[in-house]
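Sequence in, structure out. First:
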Amino acid sequence: MARVPKLIPVSELRDDVADVLKRVQRSREPLVITQRGRAAAVMLSVREYERAEYERQILRALARGEQEIAAGVGHDLDSVLEEADALLNADES
């Protein structure tokens, strides 16, 4: 079941930016900034943003692979493993 994101009004963010930033950095969860009662932006720690971007890259590569398989285009196992290693090594650095 999906978690309900934490909400914070922009006025609270404006009143105590340093504390809100500390909470976001400690938390692994996004913080939704509201303005006039509606979601206006999402705040994430840099660590969580980078993790999400990494996962998005992997998903794009998998989707591209599925499209290539459907189109009959193939790659040899060595080149696939080489690309996978490069992605994994990039995450570690």
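Second:
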Amino acid sequence: MSEQLGLFGETEDQVPEKPVVEVSGPRVQYFDLETQKSAEDVGGWGNIHKMGLAVGVVWDSLDREFFTYEEKDAAQLVEKLRTADLAVGFNIIGFDYTVLQPYSDFDLQEINTFDMLVDVKKNLGFRLSLNHLAQHTLNAEKSADGLVSLQWYKEGKINKIIQYCKQDVEITRDLYLYGEKHGFVKYQSRSGNPLDLKVDWKTANLI
């Protein structure tokens, strides 16, 4: 039987291809990970490298999508990060890279990286949490916390950790892009006053 042609000449079982949208510019990768163990489990914050990777998530500005990695995929996660023109995270240098380093024979510090927490602390003289900045700048809030994620790992609920980690990456990305666009992020003083923190988060200047 000959195939019937549709109005535009396609056979009935063919679907017209969607146009490919080309995204250009630097490859910025927003990254966050969750661990298998807590600081208490490994003998303190001096042993971050022993915490183990539970889930890592990357959002790629050129691919426009999330990439998810479990411990068995750690080498692929490292290779993904190495393709970045700029890796962006929150406490990424002090924490995320330290957790991930045992899985890599490449020094992760060599990746061109921007750590928002380092910049915030340099400008303010003290640390603010990602959740605090997200609440006041984006009116967004994390859905859970690291302790809940650790419990999910013990229960084998990897999909829950993935969704939580994706949300953290979204918040990280949106906070960075807000700061890049507006030149400030918002926070609250200890006395409860809303304040602006001037930032210079221009990707072009960081790559």
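Remark: Residues 28-206 form a domain with the Nucleotidyltransferase; domain 5 fold (CATH 3.30.420.10).
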